[in-house]
Design goal:
CATH class of the largest domain: Alpha Beta
CATH topology of the largest domain: Beta-Lactamase
Shape: elongated
Number of domains: 3
Mean pLDDT: 86
Order of helices and strands: HHEEHEHEHEEHHEHEEHEEHEE
Distance between the termini: 64 Å
CATH architecture of the largest domain: 2-Layer Sandwich
Largest sheet: 6 strands, antiparallel
Low-confidence stretches: none
Strand order of the largest sheet: 3-2-1-6-5-4
Length: about 425
C-alpha cells in the first residue's frame, strides 16, 4: 500500500493546478482498486472538490440530485466526523465510514445509501480519513475507501494526503502567480490603451486649437474678398469699357469661386475645432439615404441600393447625412467620368447584435497601400486642395453613433463600410 501510494504521490507532485492535482490523485486511487473523495474547508462550510468512484454510481447520484457533485457544500458544524479530522488533525479508520452519506444528506437531502441495493451503484463504507494541510493550515480532508483497507493502512493514506497537500500548495502558488500575471497584463494593456487615447486627445486638441486660430484669422480677409467681389460686380454692371467686360466678368467669377472655397475651408475647420455632439433619436435610415441620393442626383453616377427592410437605429440625421455624403463625394472624385459610386444599405448580425450596414463603394483606382493607415487622421490628404478633414469628420460621426467604420481598397476600387447598431432587434 505505502509503495503504491508513494508512486502515485510522485505523479501527483508533478501537476500544476488544484484541479489536476486532485484529478490525478482520484484516477490513481481508482487504478489501485480504491475510491477517493476530497473536501475543502471554505469558511464554515465543507465543499466537495473531487470524487473518484464507480462511474455508474456517479451517474446515479448526479441523476438524482440533478447537478454535478463538484462544488456541493454543507456546514462543517453539521458533520462532526469531518470536524474531528480537520480541526483535531486526526487520522481515522472506520468500517462504517458514513461521511459522504452525511454530507450528501446535508447538502442535497438525498441519501446515497438508497443506491447500495445494486452492486453497480453501491458505495463502500470501509476507509480512512486524513486531513490535508497547505502551508501548515487545514485545507480540507481526503477520504480513501476500499473493502480491504485496515487500520494498518491509515499511515499510508496519511502520508499520501501529506503529498497531496504539498502538491496543492505548489499548485495554488502557481495559480495565484498566473492570476497576478494576467491581472498585470490586463492592467498594462489598459494603461497602454489609456495612454494612446490621451495622446490622441492631446493631438486632436492641439489640432483643434490650430484650426480655430487659422479659421479666425481667415474670416476677416474673406469678408474683404466678398466685399471686393460685390464691388467688382457693381463696376461691371455700371458700364465698364466693353473691351474689359469679359475679363472683369471672368475675374469676378474666379474670385467668387475661390471665396466660396475658402469659406468652406473655414467652416470645416471651425466645425472640426468645436464639434457639436449629435442629437440621437431612434428613426429610419431611409430619409438620410434619400437625402444623399437627392444631393448627388445631378451627377448621375451614384446608385442607391436598399437590401430589404432596415431596422431603426439611433441617429442624428443631419450628421449622418453629412458623413455619408462625404464618402460619396470622395468616391465621385476618385472615379472616371463613366465610373459608378454605389451606396448599399443592408442588415447584418454579428453574434447576438444586429447592425444596419451602409457600404459606399467606388470603381476607382483605390487608395495607395502606404497611406491607408492615415486616411482618417485630421488634415491628412493626398489631394492638391482641401483640408483633409472629410474622412476625419466621417469617423467622428460614426464613433459618436456607436458605430464601426472600415475601409477596403484595391486596384478595382474602394469600399467604406459603416455599421450602426440596430434598435429593437
Amino acid at each position: 500500500m505505502i509503495a503504491a501510494l508513494s508512486e502515485l504521490a510522485a505523479e501527483v507532485q508533478r501537476k500544476r493546478t488544484v484541479a489536476s492535482v486532485l484529478e490525478t490523485a482520484g484516477r490513481g486511487v481508482l487504478r489501485l482498486g480504491m475510491r477517493l473523495y476530497a473536501f475543502q474547508v471554505s469558511g464554515e462550510d465543507l465543499v466537495l472538490h473531487s470524487l473518484a468512484t464507480a462511474r455508474s454510481r456517479l451517474i446515479a447520484i448526479e441523476g438524482h440530485i440533478g447537478r454535478p457533485l463538484r462544488g456541493l457544500r454543507a456546514p462543517i458544524s453539521s458533520l462532526p466526523l469531518a470536524s474531528e479530522v480537520v480541526r483535531a488533525r486526526r487520522i481515522i479508520h472506520r468500517d462504517d465510514l458514513d461521511l459522504f452519506h452525511s454530507f450528501m444528506r446535508e447538502a442535497t437531502n438525498f441519501d446515497p445509501a438508497s443506491l447500495d441495493a445494486s452492486p453497480e451503484t453501491a458505495g463502500i463504507n470501509n476507509g480512512v480519513l486524513a486531513p490535508i494541510f497547505v502551508r501548515d493550515e487545514p485545507w480540507g480532508l481526503l477520504g480513501v475507501v476500499s473493502p480491504t483497507l485496515t487500520g494498518n493502512d491509515a499511515d499510508a493514506v496519511s502520508l499520501f494526503a501529506t503529498h497531496v497537500g504539498s502538491a496543492l500548495e505548489v499548485a495554488e502558488s502557481i495559480e495565484t502567480l498566473e492570476k497576478t500575471n494576467r491581472e498585470l497584463s490586463t492592467c498594462y494593456a489598459e494603461l497602454a490603451r489609456a495612454q494612446a487615447e490621451l495622446i490622441e486627445r492631446e493631438r486632436l486638441g492641439a489640432l483643434g486649437e490650430l484650426a480655430a486660430v487659422v479659421a479666425h484669422e481667415m474670416r476677416d480677409p474673406l469678408c474683404v474678398l466678398f466685399n471686393s467681389i460685390g464691388g467688382l460686380r457693381d463696376f461691371v454692371s455700371s458700364g465698364a469699357p466693353p473691351e474689359k467686360l469679359a475679363d472683369a466678368t471672368a475675374f469676378a467669377a474666379m474670385a467668387d469661386e475661390e471665396a466660396a472655397r475658402l469659406n468652406q475651408i473655414v467652416s470645416d475647420l471651425l466645425g472640426f475645432a468645436h464639434p457639436h455632439p449629435p442629437a440621437l433619436r431612434v428613426g429610419s435610415l431611409l430619409p438620410v439615404l434619400e437625402a444623399v441620393a437627392s444631393a448627388t442626383a445631378p451627377d448621375g453616377r451614384v446608385r442607391i441600393e436598399i437590401d430589404g427592410e432596415l431596422p431603426p437605429v439611433e441617429l442624428d440625421a443631419l450628421f449622418l447625412q453629412q458623413a455619408l455624403l462625404n464618402l460619396v463625394l470622395n468616391g465621385l472624385q476618385a472615379i472616371a467620368k463613366d465610373g459608378t459610386v454605389t451606396v448599399r444599405a443592408s442588415t447584418t448580425t454579428v453574434g447576438s447584435d444586429t447592425f444596419v450596414c451602409v457600404d459606399v463603394s467606388d470603381d476607382g483606382p483605390g487608395i495607395p497601400a502606404d497611406v491607408r493607415a492615415s486616411i482618417f487622421e485630421p488634415f491628412f490628404t493626398t489631394k492638391p486642395s482641401g483640408t483633409g478633414l472629410g474622412l476625419a469628420v466621417v469617423k467622428r460621426v460614426v464613433d459618436a453613433h456607436g458605430g464601426r467604420l472600415a475601409v477596403e481598397s484595391g486596384k478595382r476600387g474602394t469600399r467604406f463600410g459603416v455599421m450602426l447598431p440596430a434598435v429593437g432587434k
